[in-house]
Every structure is written in structure tokens, then in C-alpha cells.
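Possible race condition, two jobs.
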Amino acid sequence: QVQLVESGGGPVQPGGSLRLSCAASGFSFGQYHMTWVRQAPGKGPEGVSNINSDFNGDGKTYYADSVKALFTASRDNTKNTLYLEMNNLKPEDTAVYYCATGLPGVGYYRGQGTQVTVSE
């Protein structure tokens, strides 16, 4: 079955960096667009980044304005893994971060999330 498992979150001070990973299994990872979504306490989900498939898309990456030039999403199709490099983190980046994908005709899948907490 489809599984998405995030890791790499944790506490970090403002200005610090973290690298999140998302290990995917149960589907042809390289064929599908992947998304990072975050949800801060008391708020709705926010799309952070979308990285298109190299095989079925343009392979490009798109970012929310709030993280542009600070976060970098990438994918390693040989390892079925999605990454999110986050730099110069701010308290407002505190959230649970999820990777997600939509498989046409099958469904929308999201991992269990990894908590990122930015504070002094």
C-alpha cells in the first residue's frame, strides 16, 4: 500500500536549518508530483512546495511566497525520497510538516507528519 513517512523534524532556534525527508513506497514515486504541506497550531493546512515529476511533468519546483528563497525541495527518484531543506527558520515556520501526493483514480495520500518547532 501507499506509504509516506516523514522524518527530520525537531526543535531548532530561529535562524537555524533543518532537512526533512519523506520516504515513499507502494507506488511509482518518480511518476508523480509530490507536495510538502504544513499545518501550524490552530491553523489550516498550507501548501509549502510542489515538485513535479520529471517523467510526467516539467520536473519544476514551486514554492509558497512565505518560504521562497528559504526552503528548497528536491527528490531522489532512485531512493524514492522527497526532501525539504529549510534555512533561516522563523517561529512562524513552527508546524507539522507533511509530504503528500495525489494518485489519479486512487486517492490522496499524506504521511503522519514531522513536527518542526522554532523557538529560542
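Job #2 (started ~2 s after job #1):
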Amino acid sequence: QVQVVESGGGLVQTGGSLRLSCAASGSIFSIDVMGWYRQAPGKQRELVALITSGGRTNYSDSVKGRFTISRDNARNLAYLQMNSLKPEDTATYYCNTQVRYWREASVRGPNDYWGQGTQVTVSS
């Protein structure tokens, strides 16, 4: 069993900053990719940024230059530093992890695990 928990959301003014954290725990062998997605009311969930275990990153065009994703492989943590926030960044942010896990003395996966989400609201 793997659990994913996000934290760090909140209310911020336009131009402000927030740092989101994602913690994965459980029977984890390794995490191939950790990513942040977001979903605004009435819209589909979209990719914000992802990072591989080797540190390669990918960002959506809408956040390039403003957001930075990072991770701590030893602690199964991921972060999203969000600067120069805009009202259009308002959404629920979800952490996604692609996990290889232990089960019955062997490594399985990778499987996708999602957190419950953390709300980010940017006021104009």
C-alpha cells in the first residue's frame, strides 16, 4: 500500500509565492516519476510539471519560468515552488507518483498513486 499526501496550498495574492510538498510513503521500492497536476473548476486535470528519478524535468508552457519542481529521492518527497502566481493558477493541485513497490518479497509496478489534492487560490 502506498499513500501520497500533498501540503502547502493556500490563499495568496497575484505575484506571490507558494511551495507545495508531496510525501509518498508505504511499501515503496522506488519512484520513477513524480508529478504535479492541477484541476480548476469546470476544467480537465492538466499536467503542471514532472520530474524523473534522475532529475529530468518537464513543465507545461503556462508555468515555465515561474514554477520549479524538485524531489528528494531518499525521502520520497517532491516539491513545487510557485512564484509570480496568477489568478489563472487557481486550482486544486494533485501529486502523482509512479511507484515500484514491494509485494510478497518481490518488486511490482510501476503503479500510479495520487494524493487527495491541495487547494491553491490566487486573488487578483
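The first strand starts at residue 2 and ends at 7.
Logs attached separately.
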